[in-house]
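Researcher: We're teaching a course module on how sequence relates to structure. For the next exercise, students receive a sequence and then see the predicted structure as tokens, so they can try to spot secondary structure elements on their own. Here is the exercise chain.
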Amino acid sequence: MKKKKQVLITGVTGQDGAYLSEFLLKKGYKVFGGYRRISSPNFWRLEYLNIKDKIKLIPFDLLDESSIISALKKSKPDEIYNLAAQSFVAFSFFEPLITAQITGFGAAKFLDAVRLFSPRSKFYQASTSEMLGGIQETPQNEKTPFYPKSPYGVAKLFAHWSVINYRESYNMFACAGILFNHESELRGLEFVSRKITSAVAQIKLGLIRELKLGNLNAKRDWGYAPDYVEVMWKMLQQKKPEEFVIATGESRTVREFVKKAFDYVNLDYRDYIKIDKKFFRPSDVNILRGDSTKAKRKLGWNPRKTSFNDLIQKMVEADLKRYQRKEIGKIF
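Model: And here is the predicted structure for the students to work with:
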């Protein structure tokens, strides 16, 4: 009987980690999930997808070399997906050093541990469109000059270049996916997309009366997270490790996202939105629109399996169900 491939996913409790786990379990992988040990572990996404009991969970900390080595020895991974990070852009302005340590230096520390203890593992790093934030050209592709506009983007760029450096210096199979915004029903409430759909559901149900937001004119390239985790896997199935931009090629304003979400519940967003300056970033990214031509050509990836409208509908419907369940005393 052919041995199952083994995979280590860090940040397994996050949106992408949960969907990637589900995807790889269906592919027949034995999945090990690295999670940050806290007093109340946050496994709700894995439970939502009914996969928590199918994953071997391992305490993991990018700042703790011993925990990295332990995770590698326990999982003996054929493939590694490093999704762990301090991933909230707005928070990075308040805690830039913590963001740098976890998101930037932590990834480099992880790469070095892989080099020493699991050199045959294929390594995927979650890079981000935030590295391209300052507009150099539109759309942005793999050759667009980097210009991060947040401590988060700076930290991710350090991790990104570390991947390339380790690949070229030590002949490791290491690559990075430059993923543009991707959302889902499992997005955290601290992200603007889920903040919007959660508020729309509560307003529709009469639980709150307004939604406070910052810059409604910022443009983002929004895709659906389950469509994006597939391409992470595709990147590690290639003969040669290289970077890919993953995006839909369409950019929409935050205002458009808000309007579509309110339209779905037959409400006029203008009656409920309040602009609050505290939600403006010190340095914002005005427009992100990715060009995933390379991924289409080399990976055979379809960037728009789920439309912008369908994405918002899925998120609003999920939040309506959550708050309806909460109202009758069921688990939120």
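Model: If you want an answer key for the exercise: The two ends are 42 Å apart (CA to CA). Residues 245 and 293 are 8 Å apart (CA to CA).
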